[in-house]
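Input chain follows. Return structure tokens only.
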Amino acid sequence: EVRLIAEGDSENITAVNTGTIDVSAKEEGADGGFVEISGPSVIIDGNIDVTSEYGEVGTLLIDPWNFYILSYSPWWATNEDGDNYVRWWKDLPGSSFMTEGWMESFTGDIHIQALNDVFFKLGEERTWSGWTEGVYPTDHLLTLQGNNFTIEAGRHIDLGNDGIVMANGGNINLLTDVDFVSGIPLTDNGVGDIYLGSGAGLISNGGNINLVGVNINLTSLVNAGTGTVNLTAQKKILDDADRAAVDIIADTLNMSAKGIGYSCSNPYQRNDIETQVNTLNSAQARTASLYLKNFGDLYVKSASAAHNVQIEVNSNLTVGDISAASVDLDAKTGSILDDLNDTTAIRANKISLTANGNIGSTSTVGDMDAGYLDIALGGGSLSLSSKGNIYINEIASANFLTSQVTNVNTGVNAHDVFLVNSAGDITVDSAISAEDNILLAANNLNVNADISTTADDIDLIALDNVNLARNISSGDYIGITADFHSAYLGKGGDGTGTISQTAGVVGSGIEDLVLGAGSGIDLHTQVVTLEANNSKSGDITIDNIGNLTVVDSGVNNQALGGKVDINVHSDLTVASDAQITTHGGDINLTADGNVYVNNISTDRSFTGSTPPPSSGTVTITAGGNIEDNYDQNSNPDDIYDINADNIVLSAGRDIGSGSKAPIELRSNGLSIIKGNDVSLFHKGNLDFGGFSGESFSLTNAGDLTISGDITTSGDINLSVIEDPNLTINATLDSGGGDVSLSATRHILLDNFALIMTRGGNFTAQADSNNNYIGTYTMNPGSEVDTASGAATPGSVLISADDAEIYGTVFSGSGDITIAPNLDQTIGLGGGIGAFRLSDDELDNLMTTGLLTIGSSSAGDISIDDITQPGKNIALITGGKIQEQGVDFGTEIVAQSLSLQAVSGIGSGNALETEVQNLSVYNSASGNIKINNSGLLNITEVAGVAGVV
């Protein structure tokens, strides 16, 4: 360490080095030494060595009153009167200098401490005293060896108009207004600017550049390359360069001043600092504004101003923390993006954001994320202009008003504008109209003004409630969600949010509507499709203008006992892949037009053979038809259109009579209030309470009891499958249509059963699957009537494994046929057989037409004591017809008798008959033996044997 100090207060006192000072280090691990040359005036004209072979270079400290950095030893100056004259260094008392050449040859850190000013006089033309000609241009560039270069001045540092300092990776530090007692800049008398003239510059090639002054005047380039530039001004950071020129190039920039980006010639006039930096790490305009223009992508980590922050970039702008009274950001060719740090935000009373690309960003579907641009607007205004999507998150407002958004413009169709208030509510208090997709999300969302978009979508999302009081319309889609759970925010979704409406209509007749809530939905709509989900409590209530189709996930109320109530002033359709469900609650579907049903359930199930739900009624009321919207292949075991504890259907026209008929149902109770033609499948034991219409068809998988009257002007078809029973305990009046009863087991016409066809035919088949377990029973008091009120009576066909006819069958002149299903033997009168009809039961079969008993597939017919005078009887069997026993009493008394057998008629013992007309036919074997009393007209005898 060497210190050469010339003490004294006279400007003529000089510290001079003309020899050699060597503090170099040759030892391994040793750094170069320290040399100080200090005095009012300093002359350095010798050799100073602070190098190190193995360690860091040392430092040369120069400490004069004033200091000049020259291109050469004598220099050319201007006196106070403006006259040019030549001076040598020895004519400059109290001033010191160092030439460009000496500094460029020096290896080590240079540290200049000037009590007053430091001037750069690089590149000035030099002339020699006494010469009248001979102007020699000199070098503008001071190139250092790559070591650190530091200047501290008690007053100004002036680089002039041509001086360029270049360090090869070392730091460049310029500090003014330094108090050399404390060693701290900007604490002395407030006099000490840094001037970079129009041709000057600082270039570090990766080293840091640190400028500290009262004012920093940037009219030329400060270039740190990949390094950092730090600017600290007691007053302002000023610029007088062309706005197209770059003032600062660096990887990272830090600035602190009262104001940043003002004119050098008028410090109250805006003149942007032009930069080409990657990161604005910190920028503080303590009492005024910050004006900055950056070329290339820029990350603003932290920026603040008392008044305005205005930053323009020609590419992407990434935002961290920016706070000011007003913030204006403009990404000319790129996007304005968030730094993905939720603790940072733009905090201002007025925010204007302009981007050619997006404002904010997101990578999340269905939830906000860190890419949303965070703002804290307070009660101020927000202007948004973008040709891309917009994602904004307000983080500090208890109630954000849409009237605070003074402009939303993208300039192109069908982009997204997403506005989130993660700190509180959003109130739509001014109309929002755009060509873009709009999303508003908050704790509570209050819509008190119209919202519309002509392009695509509107999404309204609340972590709590959505309260609607005005109209909402879009060009395509509307989504409204209350009780939304934001995984990103970690709140919402507790089951307490509702969607409610006090005025207005959702939709304009062309939109798809998707709804979600936790504790209820109540809306007036005009949309074409609907999805809705409610999770915890409350009902779903929709009143829609125009046709409505329930689509995709459908309408689902998961709240225990919660209802679904949909009223449509046209047609209502449940799409083939959609559903309407509750958790035990009622479902009420009403349409002025048709209702097309599919997958409607009060226990959220549609398949299987489990019992029907124990709670929940489905009521469907249509001004037109109620039709199946999905063909279930007529098998209610597979999937059901309607599944409920009780089902109530009412239609102005038909129910289940379309091309996809019937409608598949599962319930414990079914009521048909109104309808014309009705065709239904039903699963579950059912007590049906009756119907009045044009026709009625019901197939039931389970026991079916008809306890209420069915009155039609057309056919009535009742069928039970899966081995259940059919019981009739009411009136079936088909008004001229046919009545058909079918059961895989038994059919019972109970005491109060009355079947009237008024000329239509009656058909009943027990054991329709032919399993030998089906009986057709008519209890006393029951009646089948196919003749009353008809010009032409209908016929009767009863098939079963056995029959018990204690009620009456009246067909007038219509035929009655009683037949076993398969090959059962038949016992008539006192005859023995699997299928038996007593003479009293035959009395109950009242017809003047033909009474046919048996079939070509039936077993033997055994007869004993049938007395049916006046009746026309036909007996048909696939076996033989024989008397029961060997007595010689009359087995058959009738008006006419037709006998048809395969293996004999009275072959063993002759049949004793008392008939007037006889026709017999035996086709295969055995004899025909008949003993008749009285006059006999034989109309036909045919077969393989004779007559006895």
